[in-house]
User: Which sequence fits this backbone?
């Protein structure tokens, strides 16, 4: 199993992103839209 994340847009500028590890650990972070886009872009560059 691989790690994954789920995201919910809280408002126009904020996202609640929950990261789940392959071992079942999870962490939720509030991210700005810019941070969320940067994270998604970096994952795309890595081919995740």
Assistant:
């Amino acid at each position: 199993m691989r790690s994954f994340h789920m995201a919910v847009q809280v408002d126009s500028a904020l996202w609640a992103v929950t990261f789940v590890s392959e071992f079942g650990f999870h962490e939720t972070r509030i991210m700005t839209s810019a941070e969320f886009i940067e994270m998604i872009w970096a994952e795309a560059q890595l081919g995740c």
In short: The helical segments are 33-46. Residues 33-46 form the longest helix (14 residues).
